[in-house]
Amino acid sequence: MEIKSPVRSPLEQTADPNSVVVNLGPSHPATHGTIQVIAELDGETVKKADVHCGYLHRGFEKEAEHHHYHKIIPYTDRLNYCSALNNNFAYAEAVETLLGLELTPRCLWLRTLLSEYNRLVDHITCVAATVMELGAMTAFLYLMTVRDYIFEHLNHLTGARLTYSYVRIGGLARDLPEGWLERLEEILQLYERYIERIHGLLDRNRIFIDRTRGVGAMTPEHALNWGYTGPILRSTGLPVDLRKDSPYLAYGELDFEVPVGIQGDNYDRYYVRMREMDESVSMIRQCVKRLPGGPVSVADPRVSFPEKAHVYTRTQAVINHFKLVIDGIQVPAGEVYRAHEAPNGELGFYLVSDGGGRPHRLHVRSPSFAHMGGMHTLLEGYQLADIIATFGSMNMIGGECDR
Amino acid sequence: MIHDDIKSDLLGLYERAWESFGMLVLELPADRLLALVRRLKDDFGFDLLLDVTAVDFPERRPRFEVVYHLYSSGNNLRVRLKTRVEEASPRVPTLSHWYGAARFLEREAHEMYGIRFAGNDDLRPILLYEGFEGHPLRKDYPIDREQPLVPYRK
């Protein structure tokens, strides 16, 4: 029997009988993440494209309405799973804003350091996957080597390779282990040696340039119209970056530049990410130098457990502990939108609280989802093989896109 | 401050205005949404539609609140627009004529809450699949509800 495609593509109804409609995905080896691109081809030219996502939809926002605030943190790890710490911190800040909590200096600087460290990992992953799909296997292996060292390093800090759940409302789960900062510097130096090789292999590689220069290009107006943020928007030349425009955490005190591209094509997006990695390393070193001492979490009974010894010996401490476990953090009624510059762009959390221990509504403004909306405009008019190059430079992360 | 300029210049198009942690919030009826957004886009440079979503308040009338977040890259400003729609006819005009991003964002709000965006001719399922019954982000959709198997999954 004929199995009708579950996606009622408008292309099927309007396709020119001389064209061929092909299906890329949802389980395509080059789309790291589950997504479907339906393309109407004239020879190997893409006349029309339709992007369909949602295959990794797990009901994040529905689940959030049924969980206490601290229990939502592991769900945020599974948004952009290449940079879970950035998701953790953006979510926690939305809750902390409604609570009126002020973080400790050490927490602010550590969150900033770890945000940049995870941005580094995310960009490494994106560049590695993209260039592998274009045939640059050696570059891929170099980048994966650095990534694995960083994963092992973050494992020592958080106990997890990818799904860190390291943040807490009002602070962090624990402080840095002994020797962590020394190992960090070793890894950054290793990164610098390896990234030099990537530049040597790719920057002026004729094949790479032919595959990426002028492909998937767009103007700043086009990018803004279709909701692009982050490195994709900056590749068009617009220096829009939340870390500069609306500094959060400790970004207002850091010295860094916002790299921009020229014509918003795949090569520009590659280069913007490469430059952003260097800026991240510079920021990490500044954070290490300026990292203050002190506790990593606020001692606020609304969000923090009392000392364990006090729980066993003091009535108010055992009550505090009980209420936090059973009822969760009570967040004052109100609404807030807080956004961070995630590796893919603006990651926003729109939180509506009714004063209880569970959010009334928690909406995630996902950069990947917004980016998929305009991706068909970057595929149409190019070659079939260019779909892979353009999709790679969009860095669509299924967990983040579909939530 | 530019917030005050927006409020005084757009007086009559919105019903209430207030600040929410540094962001200007405007509440307005659905029939003035297009006029207000056009002015925000043309006169105040709000060139990026960040987000379209909805919030369900089952005990309130009107029940649904449609929420928009817009951003001005030139002025580094954000604004939140809120409009209330009834459960019986949850209908607002589409913004897809001015912002390409609205096409995708409205599809999600449509399937999750049942908000209809008049003028958006592509409201196919985006995160859910064809054959999905109900609107899962409504408060009266049980979290443990099961869905029927669609023909091609049998």
TrEMBL record, chain A:
It is a peripheral membrane protein. It catalyses: a quinone + NADH + 5 H(+)(in) = a quinol + NAD(+) + 4 H(+)(out). It is found in: Cell membrane. Its EC number is 7.1.1.-. Its main location: membrane. Residues 134-403 form the NADH-quinone oxidoreductase subunit D domain. InterPro entries: NADH_Q_OxRdtase_suD, NDH1_su_D/H, NiFe-Hase_large. Keywords: Cell membrane, Membrane, NAD, Quinone, Translocase, Transport, Ubiquinone. Belongs to the complex I 49 kDa subunit family. NDH-1 shuttles electrons from NADH, via FMN and iron-sulfur (Fe-S) centers, to quinones in the respiratory chain. The immediate electron acceptor for the enzyme in this species is believed to be ubiquinone. Couples the redox reaction to proton translocation (for every two electrons transferred, four hydrogen ions are translocated across the cytoplasmic membrane), and thus conserves the redox energy in a proton gradient. NDH-1 is composed of 14 different subunits. Subunits NuoB, C, D, E, F, and G constitute the peripheral sector of the complex. This is NADH-quinone oxidoreductase subunit D. It comes from Desulfuromonas versatilis.
Automatic annotation (TrEMBL), chain B:
Pfam families: Complex1_30kDa. It comes from the Bacteria. Keywords: Transport. Residues 27-146 form the NADH:ubiquinone oxidoreductase 30kDa subunit domain. Transmembrane segments: none annotated. Belongs to the complex I 30 kDa subunit family. This is NADH:ubiquinone oxidoreductase 30kDa subunit domain-containing protein. It comes from Desulfuromonas versatilis. The lineage of its organism: Bacteria, Pseudomonadati, Thermodesulfobacteriota, Desulfuromonadia, Desulfuromonadales.
